[in-house]
Amino acid sequence: MVVELSRREARRIAVRAQLLDAHRPADLYDVVSRLTFLQYDQTAAVAPSADLVAWSRLGSGYRMSELAEGLADRTYVELRGMIRPMEDIPLFRADMAAHAAPDSQFGHPGAQHWVDANDRFRLDILEILDVDGPVPQTSIPDTAQVPWGSSGWNNNRNVSMMLECLIVRGEVAVADRDGRERLFDLARRVYPDEMVPGPEAATIRAERLLRSLGIVRKSEAGEPAVIEGVRGRWKVDPAFLSGGFEGRTALLSPLDRLIFDRKRMADLFEYDYNLEMYKPAAQRRWGYYALPILSGDRLIGKLDATTDRKQGVLRVDAIHFDQPAPPAVEADVRHEIQDLARWLRVGLDLPA
Fold it and tell me: From CA 6, how far away is CA 18, in angstroms rounded?
C-alpha cells in the first residue's frame, strides 16, 4: 500500500521528525540521539552549526559547554565530522572492520591501495598513538613512502589523509579536542568493544535515519509514499502518520538537516535558499551566513546576522521575508532573534 500525502502533511512530518515543532526535546542527549548526529563545522559567523542546531531545538536554556562536556566525558564521539552518541558506535564497527580487512572491497579503492603502499607509515602512527595518545595531528611526523596525490586541497597532506583512512578502518578515533584541534588516539581506547553485525547494523541505521527525517526519497526502511504535486516515490516513517501538529518559529543553521538536502527542501517547502558565504559580497541575496526562518510548517525567509564577539553584539543586517509576514509572525521572528542574542550572551543590534 502506498501512503498518499499532501505537501503540507509531508512538511509537517519533516518538521516533527527534526524536533522543530512546538514539543521541544528534553535535553541535548535527546537531540543528538533522535537526530542521530550533529554535523561538526568550524564556521561560527553566528555560532558553531552544531550548537545552533541544538539551540533551535532546546532554546536558550541550552549551554554551548554541554556539547564540549559530552565529548570530553565520551557521552558523544566525533566520527568523520559527525558528533554521535557513543552508544551508537557499535552500529559502525562492522563496516570499519570490513574496510580494514585484507583485500577489502569496501570504500575508495585508491585510498585502500594508498594505505597498503604506506603500511610502515600506518604502523608508525599507531605506535605513536599507543605510546603518547591522545595527540594532535601536528605531533605526528610524515613518514609516508608514497605521497597522497590529488589535484585538490589535500594534495600531499599525508598525515591528515592517513588519519582519516585509519578512522574509516576503525584503528584510530578522535578522542577529544583542544579548542578546534582534534586529538587522536587508538580506537580501542575510545570506542566500546561491542559490534552489531553488518546487516543488522545497516537496518537499524536506516530505520533511525528515516526516523530523524520523517520522509525521504530513498530508504531501506519505511512505507512507500507519494506527495501530491511532487514527482517520484518517497519513503515515510509510519510513526509520523498519526498525531496532530503544533508548530512554532525557529531560526535554523544553514547546515540544519531540515534544509541540508536542497532538492528535498525545494520539493517539500518550495523554498529558495543557498549558503552564500562562498559568493562575492555583491552576488549575495540574503547574506554571508543567512539563517533560514521556519514558521510552523513553512520556511518563510532568511535572517542576515553575524555575531561581533569583539563588540559583544549580535548584529542583524536584514530580515528577508519571502512574502510579507503578518504582524504576529514578524513578532515571533523578532522574539526568536532576541532569544538567540540572550543565548549567545551578547547585546542585540536589531533594526526597528
Answer: 19
Min mean pLDDT across 104-108, 217-221, 242-246, 340-344 is at 104-108
Which three cell numbers mark 98? Answer: 570490513
* Per-residue pLDDT reduced to its tens digit, 222-252: 999 999 999 999 999 999 999 999 999 999 9
Give CA–CA dist 101/42, Å, rounded. 33
Packing angle, helices 65-72 and 49-58, rounded to 10: 110
What DSSP element (H or E) covers 163?
helix 158-168
Cβ(71)–Cβ(78) under 8 Å? yes
Render 214-279 in DSSP notation, one character per residue.
Answer: SEESS-SSSEEEEETT--S-EEE-GGGSSS-----EEE--TT-HHHHSHHHHHHHH-------TTS
**DSSP character string of 276-328:** -TTS-GGG-SS-TTPEEEEETTEEEEEEEEEEETTTTEEEEEEEEESSPPPHH
**26 CB-contact burial (10 Å; exposed 0-12 / middle 13-18 / buried 19+):** exposed
d(CA 79, CA 57): 22
Contact between residue 187 and residue 175 where contact means Cβ atoms under 8 Å apart: no
Task: Give me the mean pLDDT over the 272-293 stretch.
Answer: 95
- What are 318's strand-pairing partners? 304
Tens digit of each residue's pLDDT (9 = 90 or more) over 185-223:
999 999 999 999 999 999 999 999 999 999 999 999 999
What is the SS3 assignment for 136?
A: strand
